[in-house]
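Worked example

This section walks through a single chain of length 176. The input is the sequence exactly as stored; nothing has been trimmed or padded.
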Amino acid sequence: MVGLGPIRLRSVSEHSIPDRQRTYTWDDPAPTSAANRDMRGVDFLRGLIDGTIPHHPTSRTLGFTVTDAREGLVEVTMEAREFHANAVGSVHGGVLATMFDTAMGFAVASTLEPGVGYTTLDLQVRYLRPVQPGHRVRVQGFCEHAGRRTATARGEARDDEGRLIATGSTTCMILR
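Given that input, the structure is written out below as tokens.
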């Protein structure tokens, strides 16, 4: 067997690729968490949409927002950007999974009364096609069942041409 010898990795500076930077801000999460706890779920979500309640730090970090909320349905939207890319150049699956967790969890939350919370027990995402930076991604979550102890929801992600790019499902524990 012939050895290849030592492998030398080149640094970014040797390739003359400029560094990219991103700066963003977020609000103190405590008022958002308090509003989520103290308001009807659908009213909390409408506050996110109209700007009276600040979005949580995760949404600011990834750059998505709640764009529609009705009882049992929540939509989260994001413009896929270069900083969302994985090693092959498409949007990292974890970014989409976070959007699914948010949309489906908020769909469950939209059915809850003040003082009742939830947390994700499981999350499944099935990826059907890649998303490239520069395209809008819309994830809709639909609450299918909201019981006393658990709730289930499903979700769909679509690109800016309306093509289905992923589906998801979740079970949430209801915290009374």
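What to look for: The beta strands are 64-70, 73-79, 117-127, 136-146, 150-159, 164-175.
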